[in-house]
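My main concern about presentation is that the manuscript never shows what a single data entry looks like. An entry of this sort, consisting of the sequence and the corresponding backbone structure tokens, reads as follows:
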Amino acid sequence: QLYKNAWLIGGSLSYSKSNAKSTDQVVTKYSFLNVNANIGYFAWDKVAAGILLQLNTTAERTPEVDGTTRILNSRLFGAGPFVRYYFMKPESRINLLSEASFIYSTGSQKTTGFPAFKSNSLNYNLFAGPVLYFNSSVGMEFLIGYNRLVDLSTKTNENYFRIKVGFQIHLESD
């Protein structure tokens, strides 16, 4: 399943929620949903690299002085490379992995009372955690990690701690 020349196909889902307090004590609430699909190839035993497709949705709620709430919603689609390393023996039913990825995303953002505008961002991701194999081909992953989102449109940076759950199918090639 983790041997050279095998293919990796799968997907994952992650969600994060956070609060940020400004200097004037205004609390902004963020929620972030991320859906990934990937295809990769094992160039070496235990090392896979490939392409990651991603959908990000973000909701931001900020109370205003007049008692209303400003709501910002964004939806971004992205793609980029990923690389994975599996630490245990390839035939292990439980393994540990690490994953790094870089994704360029584009889409739109809409804030209450303002027109929508185009948004572009860069995502830097680092994840690690266990994968449990149901058989020699299918595994379920439970990863924790760090995501740095750089919004190229607004020149802002956001940092997230994320939990990601996903399935991967390993296909051997002859």
Q: What stands out?
A: The longest strand covers residues 27-44.
